[in-house]
Amino acid sequence: MSATRNGSHESSDVLSTRSLSEISEVETVRLSVDLVSAARKNLGLLRTASESPWLHERATLLEAIRRYDELWMPLISDLMEGSSPPMVLPPLDVEWVWFCHTLNPVSYRKYCEKRFSKLIGKPAIFYEENEEYSLMRCEELWMKRYPNESFENEIGINSSNLQDLHAVHDHHEDLLSEVEKQRHVYSKFSWPYMTDIVYLIAARQRYKGFLYVLQRFADGCPSRLLPSLDILLMWVTHQSYPTVYDEDLKEMEGDMGKMVGLWETVRSIEVEETKKLWERTFDQSYVKAGGVIEFGGAASVVKPPVYWEVSDRDVNTKYKSLLPRFLQEVCVFVRLNSRMKPTQQERQHNFLRLQIVRCHRELKIDKPISSFSADTWKKVTHLYCEFGTKGLMLEVRKHGGGCFKTSKLEDSKTFLWNDLLRAPSLTLETHLDDKQVRAVASITPPAQAPYLLKCVPDKVTDDSGAMVSDVILRMNNYKPQEGRWLSRTILDHAGRECFVVRMRVAGGFWRRGGETPSAVKWEDRIIEIREGSWSYVAGSIGRAPEKIVGTATPREPPEHWQAAWCFSTGEELLISWESSTSMSDLNFRLRNQTSSDPLVKLLRGKKMQYRARKINSKGKEHEKRENTEENDEEDEDDEGFLTLVRFTEDNPTGRPTALLNWKLLIVELLPEEDAVFALLLCISILRSISEMRKEDVGSLLIRRRLKEAKLGARDWGSVILHPSSSSSTISSPYLQPWYWNARSVIAPDGGDDATKQPAVNNSPVEGGDKLYKKGIMT
């Protein structure tokens, strides 16, 4: 059975306790601004500011502060009617300074009262069309009042300007410090699920609950209270609307000083006190999925292992065979029922087991009942799960006797993701083991995650795309199959066939009596990618899909380069190497055939957000020192890995959009990166390096489908364990990002030995090893 929501009367298994949704505005604070819409707008501003390095350059920032102080604030002060701000929006640089200033309510209020004798508010403009109008209206008013001041920040670089800016800096030391402090604030709120309305509604309700706790217990609490991440987002959003914040919380002005601010270091006693007060008030775990606690400064925060960022667009929707992948955060907590404590024998022999409903059935996380208490909620696990996993199961089991390690099922309950998405605060609670064990599961709304694609060997095909087989021969009335292409099938994270890759090797046909296929010229050894899955006609024999979505053609390389490929996507790949024995000598260059700008780069190894993070036995993270230079010596674990980085005017430092392993033919890519382009890169590089080294470095000679791990047993990428839940008993590579242990995770069923192609499986009709070695290595 699935768990039902708090407070319902549908099942006696679920506790009927006071929930957050039952708190009325009479009991706590009335929020006068739509915090859900306001938070979405603020997240957009924070992301834009984060992706605009020019905005944080010292000269630009000082000019922005001058414009804010001398131009914008006097303008909006004069436009205000009573306490209602006008519906106008300033330019980006001024809006950023304004936002940062409001995050210090005491300082902002003093500034406004000293300069204007009133508190300056911010208009509630949440919709894109209204934003465009408000910005245009502001520009009109700005130019009318300041005809000699540009509406946009166009700071000059001559010395006279810089002297003026230094004078402004001296006058606004505190404000400059405030703005610089918030430069990386988006790093706290950059999770893609945070813009989801369901998440924000739950966060708003928890923020109201936090204010409720603050009202009742702040005076008697010796320590400060620490907002969790979702509550912090709502608090920051509330602060950014100063007049609203001041009016809403005027009766709590003294209490707000008991909240820990954005970048303040926290003592562990304050964390525990906050958890204790929340649990005492709501009888719920304070920490939840999407609502973790960060304390001890930025350096002590354990970063999540997944690279999962907001993407504005998915360029792969044009490929109908490629389905998006969705990920969500999951937390499970357990507490023993204080009224029905288990006996000492039960505590010693019973244990809790967590399993996933689909996609990763091998996962078993066991925790002894003795590790939980009736005094507080204890974390069972913290996971990132694909939405396709459907849900999780909790079982109370009893250790069996005898020599065999068996256990007996005592009770079980299931939390389904769809039920959790409909639950208040995205949280559900249930009972197990005759109500002796209480369990709570929470999730975040699913958000689109990177695509995961891998290339697996398949049968040789002819020029038409049909597999070379007696079955096809009979269907063609024994007309010989002309042409020979090495073929590979592209599978997604769920094992679905998405594309078929074909590499031309030979022309002609095989006929009994002496005629055999012959290798084609080097320049005719093209690579093509077809969209869709095989059309099977008998068992594993089939035809490739018709639609060709990408090609790579070899061409003569320019001077100082050893290989060159032209892609149908418009890019050209150049490859050079100094030694055929060292992969660290490889150099790559990507250039667009219509532009000379280096907008795309390939970096050797796992770079930037893909760099490896190792976790010690205490769950603490150790990052390998990253070499940002392309020519740095390559780590042994990084062999075959390349990071694809795209550069734009707004982001000159580059954004990693894909991680490739050309040796294993695996790709992880953001939705904004073209899957066909990434696959063409992988195959082309493998072809060139095989030719360079005169060996089959990527198992291209395998010409049959290998046995894959059974779908649903441990699907790669389906479940990732958060480092805080790591332990010596849970160390499976399948619960880590695939690129930490790529060869182990992607290995076919049976291990590496399965990749050795038995000679007896080669049909003389498709051509012998000599033909394919010539096509690959010469």
Q: Residue share in helices?
A: 25-40%
The Cα radius of gyration reads 30 Å
The count of helical stretches stands at 17
Q: Helix/strand-derived class?
A: alpha+beta
Overall form: flat
Low-confidence stretches: 4-17, 156-163, 296-300, 615-634, 752-760
Measured distance between first and last alpha carbons: 61 Å
Gist?
With 778 residues, the protein is α+β, with helices and mostly antiparallel strands. The chain contains 17 helices and 27 strands. About 7% of the residues have low confidence.
Structure description:
This is ENOLASE (DUF1399). It holds the Pfam family GRDP-like. It is flat and about 100 Å long. It contains 17 helices and 27 strands. Strands 10, 11, 12, 13, 14, 17, 18, 19, 20, 21, 24, 25 and 26 form a 13-stranded antiparallel β-sheet that branches. Strands 1, 4, 7, 8, 9 and 27 form a 6-stranded antiparallel β-sheet that branches. A 4-stranded antiparallel β-sheet has the order 3-2-5-6. With 778 residues, it is of the alpha+beta class. Residues 4-17, 156-163, 296-300, 615-634 and 752-760 have low confidence and may be disordered. A hairpin with an 8-residue loop joins β2 (350-356) and β3 (365-368). α8 crosses α9.
